[in-house]
Amino acid sequence: MAEKPWEGRFTQETNELAEEFTSSISFDKRLYRYDIKGSMAYCEALAKAGIVSQGERDKILQALKEIEGEIEQGEFPLSARWEDIHMHIEQRLREKIGEVGGKLHTGRSRNDQISMDMRLYLKEETIGIHGLLKGLQASLVGQAAKYINAVMPGYTHLRKAQPILFSHYLMAYYEMFKRDRERVTEALRRIDVLPLGSGAMAGTPYAIDREYLGELLGFTTVSQNSIDAVSDRDFVVEFLSQCALMMMHLSRLCEELILWSAPEFGFLRLPQSFCTGSSIMPQKENPDVLELIRAKTGRVYGALVSLLTILRGLPLAYNRDLQEDKEPLFDAVDTVKASLTIMAKLLEGIEVNQDRMREAAAEGFTNATDLADYLVKRGIPFRKAHQIAGKVVKYAEEKGKKLEDLSLGELRSFSSAIGEDIFDYIRIEGSVDHRQSIGGTARQRVAEQIKRAQEELAC
Question: I want to staple 75 with a disulfide (CB 3.0 to 4.6 A). Which of 70, 231, 266, 435 is the partner?
Answer without folding.
Answer: 70
